[in-house]
Amino acid sequence: MKKVITLLFILGIFSGVFTKTYGQTPEPPFAIVDIGDETSYPGTVFVPIEVDFDKGKVVRSFEFKINFDSSVIEFVGLADVNPIFSARIDAVDDSPLADLVITWDSDDLDYDIAAGFKGLLLNLEFVLLNVGYSDIEFDGPDETGKTEIGGGDPGDEMADFLSSEFIDGSVTGIEPKAIPIANWSIFIGVFMIFGFIVLRFVRI
Q1: Structural domain includes residue 40
Q2: CA Rg, the chain, in Å?
Q3: Rounded CA gap, 151 and 158, in Å?
Q4: CATH number assigned to the domain comprising residue 114
Q5: pTM
Q6: Cα(167)–Cα(156) distance, rounded to whole angstroms?
Q7: Most C-beta atoms within 10 A of its C-beta, which of 45, 71, 123, 126?
Q8: Which residues lie across from 64 on neighbouring strands?
């Protein structure tokens, strides 16, 4: 009888440990931040950051630490910032913490101003320096003190850490398309005809 009780006790402990360790459901993301993937010729390129803050909590602050290959792309500034966030958003591209740090908080604003927001947060404006590839990556995604989002329940002015999902993006630089040699004769012919017409017009 004692052996049976001991066996049941051991099985009970094992079952409890298993349930506690492996039976936990991870906390769902209360915010999603997605950097786009862009392909472009060398020159100005805009990379969107889309967000989904309509996940049951109110986002009241965020800090994005972002890294990229500065030999391929050069940060210019933030563009098309959504008006909800434009008053208190800030970007620093000479930080020792990351290539780019973007911060926002709702202090001095309506604490629930970002409630239910979903769509384009802003565009990152870069100069694509040459042909190549650069990841645009979040540094320490969903880690306190790195890339993180704060918020809470509607009507509650507290801003606690919100479990979030961060999706990296990229920029790919490609060679500009050259005019095929076979088409040069056509191009020159059209140019000469146009020049002849303009010259006749000037003479008249």
Answers
A1: yes
A2: 28
A3: 7
A4: 2.60.40.680
A5: 0.75
A6: 28
A7: 126
A8: 102
- Which secondary structure element, helix H or strand E, spans residue 83, and what is its range? helix 83-86
Q: Please give the C-alpha separations between residue 63 and each of 50, 102, 118, 139, 194, in angstroms, as whole numbers.
A: 15, 6, 18, 10, 56
- Residue-level pLDDT at 94: 86
State how many domains the chain has.
1
Angle formed at CA 199 by CA 194 and CA 203, multiple of 5 degrees? 150
Contacts of 181 (CB under 8 A, 6+ apart): none
26 occurs within a structural domain: no
Distances (CA, A) of 165 to 28, 29, 143: 9, 6, 11
Structural domain span for residue 43: 32-173
- pLDDT, tens digit, for every residue of 102-131? 999 997 778 899 999 999 999 999 999 999
